[in-house]
Design a protein that fits this description.
nine-stranded mixed beta sheet; 16 helices; single chain
């Protein structure tokens, strides 16, 4: 946690964090982190113990990104949109010794065993911090590859998988973030990206490295963001769906000074790119996965990009680009792990290795064997390689749905639908949605002689899934199948997307 120790001295009097009406300088924020870490040790935390945190974007969750590793623990930031069962699985699988939870999310821990200690953010957390000492603790880190956090991602399977981040990977990725996105001590970052998602793409640590300011708020509010853009915000991260919301908000207007928008999760459309340019945003398009600390690659435009027609500029900006300065290596390979031609046409799978690739899945040796076959991390993403060395995605190997930047497993949704007593079989695919990019749709064959309505199916799913995973549409009828009885999901998906381009990141 050397970034924070340095920031508390070098940037001592500068404002580090703003959360509502509260603000802390870097010296004050460092003191709170030290006290929090000291209190955790006094409370019995042992080296490598996992500490779970369920909270929206806030000073408390930002503080945990420093205090838990500082104490020698491993942070498990839990997705605030998950169901109670998913939260319970993560707490159990990680073996968390304690669970910090924001009061407004208390219902999300209903399924967590009572034996797991719960601490509420706010007054209870502050009381814990007060008991600690403002001293620099002796580090318990024995190796730079020791874990700093575990990030759980549903990915393409039903159960969330624990992706392990190391101190070394977090350190290097944070430096890359600061450098690639042109951050400095004068930068002001708005927390539109959830901190629980890939540790906020390592921005918590990047901000400390350069002494920049954080502005925390629990949910995206277009009117608030436009006010902040006009005041002092210089940087923010957002999926294209959030950018689209901002671009079409009533408050949208041409900015008097540029604001850097970092996007990922899906390639922004040329129309959206044009609108953002018109409004005065400078767009950084990134690409990565939970397994790569968030963005592994960044689109670096050619020197002559401004001289090209804008429609061509937009197509180039929509590419996933190149590994960031600290990331490592990225290739597009065929089934034999041979590089595909760099012609912009030959398809292959994106594979990665290097500094900011996870050290593995927690307690999942079989998953690690599959994911790292041949010594490279297999993304499951299908792409082309261009002559300039940039990568551009074309599709995913699996049927993952990316809705508002969140991964949704179709298998998980199918299991929830199929648990309804009237359902014989079902298939779930992505369908286009103007707000979220894509959302789940369930195609269902009912049991003979049994009736059910779409409303009943949706209500049933809401009891088993996080809200964003619930099908937004339901259709009843026979499912297309192969001669062996396998459901042909591509037929369902193609019919829904006919006449529209489905660009997947």
């Amino acid at each position: 946690m050397s970034f924070l120790e340095r920031a508390g001295t070098v940037f001592a009097g500068r404002v580090a964090v703003v959360d509502g009406d509260s603000r802390w300088t870097w010296a004050e924020f460092r003191a709170r982190a030290r006290r929090f870490a000291s209190a955790l040790r006094a409370d019995g935390l042992a080296p490598g113990d996992r500490v779970a945190f369920l909270a929206p974007n806030s000073e408390a969750l930002l503080l945990a990104h420093f205090a838990v590793p500082m104490a020698g623990g491993v942070l498990v930031a839990v997705n605030a949109r998950w169901s109670a069962d998913e939260v319970a699985h993560v707490v159990d699988h990680s073996g968390a010794r304690a669970l910090f939870v924001a009061p407004e999310l208390a219902g999300g821990v209903a399924a967590v065993p009572a034996a797991v200690r719960r601490i509420t953010t706010g007054l209870e957390l502050d009381a814990l911090i007060v008991r600690g000492d403002d001293v620099q603790l002796e580090s318990w880190i024995t190796d730079e590859s020791d874990p700093i956090s575990i990030n759980y991602s549903s990915g393409t399977t039903g159960q969330p998988k624990g992706v392990v981040y190391s101190h070394r990977g977090a350190y290097l990725d944070a430096l890359a973030v600061a450098l690639e996105h042109r951050m400095s001590r004068d930068s002001v970052y708005a927390w539109t990206l959830p901190m629980y998602h890939c540790n906020g793409w390592t921005f918590p640590w990047a901000l400390a490295a350069v002494g920049a300011r954080s502005i925390c708020f629990p949910r995206v509010d277009a009117a608030l963001l436009w006010r902040l853009f006009d005041e002092d915000v210089t940087h923010f991260c957002a999926a294209p769906t959030v950018l689209l919301m901002l671009a079409n908000a009533p408050e949208a207007h041409a900015l008097e000074r540029p604001v850097r928008a970092v996007t990922g999760g899906a390639p922004p459309s040329p129309t959206l790119i044009a609108r953002l340019h018109e409004l005065g945003f400078e767009l950084d398009h990134t690409y990565g996965l939970t397994e790569t600390y968030g963005p592994f690659a960044i689109n670096v435009p050619a020197l002559d990009i401004a001289q090209r027609p804008f429609d061509e500029q937009a197509r180039v900006i929509a590419r996933q680009g190149f590994p960031n300065v600290c990331a490592g290596e990225m290739r597009v390979v065929d089934d034999g792990m041979r590089d595909v031609p760099r012609d912009g046409y030959a398809l292959g799978e994106v594979v990665m290795r290097g500094n900011v690739v996870t050290s593995g899945y927690y307690r999942d040796p079989e998953g690690n064997t599959r994911a790292f076959e041949g010594g490279w991390f297999h993304t499951g993403d299908i792409a082309v390689w261009h002559a300039d060395g940039s990568v551009e995605l074309r599709d995913r190997k699996k049927d993952i749905i990316i809705s508002g930047g969140e991964n949704i497993s179709t298998i998980e949704v199918e299991h929830a639908v199929a648990s309804h007593p009237a359902v014989l079989e079902c298939a779930v695919v992505a369908i286009p949605d103007d707000r979220w990019g894509e959302v789940p749709k369930a195609f269902i064959e009912l049991r003979p002689g049994v009736a059910a309505s779409a409303e009943e199916i949706v209500a049933h799913c809401r009891a088993h899934l996080a809200h964003f995973k619930v099908p937004r549409a339901v259709k009843f009828g026979p499912l297309p199948r192969t001669s062996t009885g396998k459901i042909q999901k591509f037929q369902l998906r193609d019919a829904e997307w006919r006449g529209r381009e489905r660009r997947i990141n």
